[in-house]
Amino acid sequence: MVVFDRSEGHNNLIYFNADRSIKVIVTADFNRRRLKPKEQVDAVINAYKVEDFDMVLNAIKGGVYVVLKGKP
Predict the structure, then answer these.
(1) How would you class 12 by CB atoms within 10 Å of its CB: exposed for 0-12, middle for 13-18, buried for 19 or more?
(2) 14, 45, 61, 67: which is deepest, by most CB within 10 A?
(3) Cα 67 from Cα 11, distance rounded (Å)
């Protein structure tokens, strides 16, 4: 599943693996402006263990996370 984190100061893409135990957070310039096709950007990528997936589901229900691909 892929979500967009709209929380204040974040605006990151977050990827969850199939068993929802790991999340990969991508932070890049696309958060601040629209990119042109094939434009190169620097990105910071961090991976974390998901401790409580219910918190993720609550963020989706609350509108903090927007699901871009997959199902919660």
Answers:
(1) buried
(2) 14
(3) 13
